[in-house]
Amino acid sequence: MIEDKARFAPAAERVEHRKETAPLLDAFFDWATATEGKLSAKSELAVAFRYILKRREALTRFVTDGRLEADNNIAENAMRKIALGRKNYLFAGSDSGGERAAAIYTLVVTARLNGLNPEAYLKDVLTRIAEGHPINRIDELMPWRMTSASDPQPG
Known about the structure:
Blueprint: H1 2-6, H2 11-18, H3 21-38, H4 44-54, H5 56-60, H6 73-84, H7 95-113, H8 118-130, E1 146-148, E2 151-152
Antiparallel strand pairs: 1-2
Helix pairs in contact: 3-4, 7-8
């Protein structure tokens, strides 16, 4: 598989591997264009084909930009835990409670994506805030600014 070779490779190498993907995508979009023309304009299938065709540039950008993934699996996997607990979130108490829960979930997942233990990260941040961390320097406590749960990154 082309993407198996490109996964985890440096950006320039990914683009090189994905050169094999471009003709496959061109063939798919040629087929989709031809097929959409044969369908009833008002059918749901024609609507779906037009949706894909209008977004060709965005859907194929990963071929020429090695920084991009071919899929959104990383984001979907991060959200899976939230989706699994959806029924529990009905009991947030209020809209503002739901917004607070969403903020906490975002911090937990972002901490995890930045290689931090979310529990240690939140404990450290809350301790620093309670001990008087200046509000105008709150950005120093963001997960991507921390090298460990107790050390802010310089800069």
